[in-house]
Specification:
The protein has twelve helices and 20 strands. By secondary structure, it is of the alpha+beta class. The chain folds into two domains: 64-177, Uridine Diphospho-n-acetylenolpyruvylglucosamine Reductase, domain 3 (2-Layer Sandwich), CATH 3.30.465.10; 180-391, Vanillyl-alcohol Oxidase, Chain A, domain 3 (3-Layer(aba) Sandwich). An eight-stranded antiparallel β-sheet has the order 16-13-15-14-18-19-17-20, sandwiched between helices. Helix 7 (235-259) packs antiparallel against helix 8 (264-274) and helix 10 runs antiparallel to helix 11. The protein is globular, with a radius of gyration of 21 Å.
Length: 441
């Protein structure tokens, strides 16, 4: 079986693909792989843009571990199988009158994949999805099931671990009563948006913006919690706003841009002008998420919120040196100390993401943006940045020094750490996190 990620730029042909239907079958699959000395990798929805999954060893597919297992309304906790997709979880919670407090704009990911890579939405008072994890069950390489709970270092290490510590079997998430959002999509001059950035970020529950290279229009999205009842738009307006412009027109523009790169500046300005202004009120998960049919690859950096405006400007200018007709995206997340590898460890964080559509040379664009300098601070937007930037884990990062600004090194609390970290769990080209964990695997 050949595995391909969502973007279509990562592939592998594993020797074994295991699809466990229970924790017992998952334990057996891990034990078999350990006994055979094979590398184990985990596949969720394939929505990561780096080399976290590719293997010629054992690929574990958790799609059959996708049930809602228990619901504790009083405590605000829901326990789910690791393979459940976010869109399925949203629907199940909605039927129960519950919701996740925040989401990203894509809901195709598995829960385990989303938390393991610190997937995030936007909202300066809300953390990434991993901060919503109250407990998880981790299958270690010897088949032991480790229950990570409470305020333990085990849980802080396991929340965001990019699959390096074991296989997540089940997750207990904190949930809230279902709520509605009033969403405003507006275009504003980019310079004015950056000048008033703190006002925008702090004055809303959720604020983000997009800007196309060669365009001076910031496409802003501002969401606020509301007690007003949901009033979704009609089918035709929804199709225009969520399908025609951001998917079909954007896809046509990207295809034309690949054929005629010299036309990209004009095309970008045209498509930015075509994005519709709208105001709507709907249940939270339908506001947070949007259909994304145009396939792309992405590189995203996490940086101190205060550095956002100059770095976003520098990234925009760097992207304009290449054939890029996909917007730069900027979002904001609260500081947290919930996960040692959280890109938002102990600081309010802005995320700046550049994208390249499938078939474009995205790596060259990412490299240019990664080494661009802030015009006001001189700070590089790369791994050696004086403003402490770091790539968010699944975003097209490759193996390299783990010198990013993260939390402290973890000393595992397990009584017998040796079987927890066998050499077979990783190899020399494993993501850098793995090489910095005991005992040298």
């Amino acid at each position: 079986m050949r595995w391909t990620n969502w973007a279509g730029d990562e592939h592998c042909t594993p020797a074994v693909v295991a699809r466990p239907r229970s924790v017992e079958e998952l334990v057996a699959a891990v034990q078999d792989a350990t006994a055979a000395g094979r590398i184990v990798r985990l596949a969720g929805a394939g929505h990561s843009f780096g080399d976290l999954v590719a293997t010629d060893g054992v690929l574990l597919d958790l799609d059959r571990l996708a049930d809602v297992l228990t619901v504790d309304r009083a405590a605000g906790l829901v326990r789910v199988g690791a393979g459940i997709r976010l869109h399925a979880l949203d629907a199940a919670l909605d039927a129960l009158g519950l919701a996740l407090p925040n989401l990203g704009d894509i809901d195709r990911q598995s829960v385990a994949g989303a938390i393991s890579t610190a997937t995030h939405g936007t909202g300066i008072r809300l953390g990434n999805l991993a901060t919503q994890v109250a407990e998880l069950e981790l299958v270690l390489a010897d088949g032991t099931v480790l229950r990570c709970t409470g305020d333990s270092d085990d849980l802080r290490a396991a929340r965001v671990a990019v699959g390096a510590l074991g296989v997540i079997a089940a997750v207990t998430l904190r949930v809230v009563p279902a709520f509605a959002l009033r969403a405003e999509d507006r275009a504003h001059p980019l310079a004015a948006t950056l000048a008033r950035l703190d006002e925008h970020v702090e004055g809303a529950d959720h604020f983000e913006f997009y800007v196309f290279p060669h365009s001076d229009r910031a496409l802003t999205r501002t969401n606020r919690c509301t007690s007003a009842p949901p009033a979704p738009a009609g089918r035709l307006r929804t199709w225009v706003d969520e399908e025609l412009v951001p998917n079909r027109i954007l896809d046509a523009v990207c295809r034309l841009g690949r054929r005629r790169p010299a036309a990209i500046p004009r095309l970008n300005r045209l498509v930015a002008a075509a994005f519709p202004a709208r105001v709507r009120t709907d249940v939270s998960h339908r506001v947070f998420t949007s259909p994304r049919h145009v396939r792309f690859t992405e590189m995203e950096w996490a940086l101190p919120r205060a550095a956002c405006a100059p770095v976003a400007t520098a990234v925009q200018r760097a992207a304009e040196r290449h054939a890029v007709n996909f917007p730069v995206e900027v979002r904001f997340v609260a500081a947290d100390e919930a996960a040692f590898l959280s890109p938002s460890w102990a600081r309010e964080t802005a995320y700046v993401a550049v994208h390249a559509t499938r078939g474009c040379r995205g790596s060259r664009t990412s490299a240019r943006c990664r080494t661009s300098r802030s015009p006001t601070t001189g700070a590089r937007t790369g791994a050696n940045a004086t403003c402490s930037t770091q790539p968010r884990w699944p975003r097209a990062t490759r193996s390299g020094p783990a010198s990013r600004r993260c939390g402290p090194v973890w000393t595992p609390a397990a009584a017998s750490p040796t079987p927890t970290w066998p050499v077979c769990w990783g190899r020399s080209d494993e993501p850098a996190i793995r090489r910095h964990l005991p005992p040298g695997g």
